[in-house]
Amino acid sequence: MTTARRLVAAAVTLTVAGALAACGTDEPALTSLAEQQASASPSPSLTEEESTKQERIAEAEAVLAEYRGLEFEVAQGGYGNWALLAPYWGAELADSVAGTYREFSERGLYTTGEAELVSSEVTAYDGERVGYEDVEVTACLNTSGLRIFEEDGTELDLPNDTLEQYVNVYRLSHTGPDGRWQVLESTARTDREC
């Protein structure tokens, strides 16, 4: 893969998820079951464990929405303020994306348009260790409205292997009883159409 193609592929991966927060999240159909349950009054039939699980999932989804929104702003602004994302990154994600964000900033790449969140659901939850819960969110994204540009305004082609609509999987983990949620992985599954 050429350097230009690798950069465009990475730009799609990094920016498409961030564009989600700016697109249609006010629509009731896009609200996850966990968000609906968290905003409702606690049901007396829920056990303490079930109630805690719902709370943790709602917290993780809220942090993911903040992160995606900030990702979108960073991409639209030319990646210059990419360091604002660092507090959201777990070590694994930071190792894999910080260099790319730095390079995008230096090159002056930026995006326009938005990716559409087609669907989103919690696909895994591990609450075995209280305070160190893990949540996996699988989202279906439509990137037909997303465009990527060089600093001089030259539009870059999206890679041929990037589907217009595909799956992105996020893994979040809580860092401890006094900690916070971090995004450990954001994996574009361009081999899986949704």
TrEMBL record:
Region (Disordered): 34-53
Alphabetically ordered keywords of this record: Signal
Low complexity bias locations: 34-46
Superkingdom field: Bacteria
Signal peptide interval: 1-21
Protein name: Lipoprotein
Organism from which the protein derives: Isoptericola halotolerans
Lineage of the species this protein comes from: Bacteria, Bacillati, Actinomycetota, Actinomycetes, Micrococcales
